[in-house]
Specification:
315 residues, alpha/beta, TIM Barrel, 15 helices, 9 strands, 13% strand
Amino acid sequence: MDIWESLTRPFLILAPMEGVTDVIFRQVVARAGRPDLFFTEFTNVSSYASEKGRANALERLEIAPSDSPIIAQIWGKNPEHFAETVKALETLGFSGVDLNFGCPDKNVNRAGGGAAMIKTPELAVECLKNARENTDLPVSVKTRLGWGDPQEYQGWLTTILREHPAALTVHLRTKKEMSKVPAHYELISEIVKMRNEISPETKLVVNGDIRDKTHALELYEKYPEVDGFMIGRGVFANPYCFTDYMPTREDLMGLLNFHLDLYEEYSKKHRVSYEPLKHFYKIYINNFPGASDIRARLMETHSVEEARAVLSNLC
């Protein structure tokens, strides 16, 4: 069955975030309380199509048993590379493929991918068609309202919906807005109307400033024709954001130790840097006396062993 058709509305998704939602952190979120659907970090189709880059691409696409169901997110600008990559994804255990037409990263955009696709709609359509024609997996799209003006959604989203993707996730900001302004919730009703008129079978997911499950349900009550909600930065405020549970300090410390265990296990198989792990400490060490000092000490560590030594002094 098409994964998008099997989900019960309103479904919740962990947003794909570069350097965050890797195979390690997804297992952490799954332990806290998994969303209905995971996405991978995005993978460059040109890397997969290259003999030199394929090993790295496959490493980024590694999944754990607790990830399922999971969507593989890919990006690029070469239609043939999209075709080649989606064929391989069918054999790797994914439930679908998502095309990233919204990443605002300058390097990605300079390469013509991510949000740069908004400025080349004909190429975006070609990439989408090539992906869909070369896989039996459902193909979805994640994008933004536009490049600079939020009203660009009228032309841009119309172009994508005319291709009838299995699902369309809209980050309710433009590329230039990044996350500097509030998400444009005022446009949800118009986007729903557009979806209903052009491609009613496409599942509509909204993304941007959604804090947690409670917030998503509040939005669903206001916009009941939205199918799903994607949570990104909310997971940093509360890794249990997909549940109704409010974690204790002990819960968060236990989750942090689980995260460290997974990192150590993963590092035995792959060469990984310790530095990116530091970005996660603020998720677990906060909102209690002395938390900022402990985080500062953790940021000075250079290994999991040193981090555990700092944490061992906590009561």
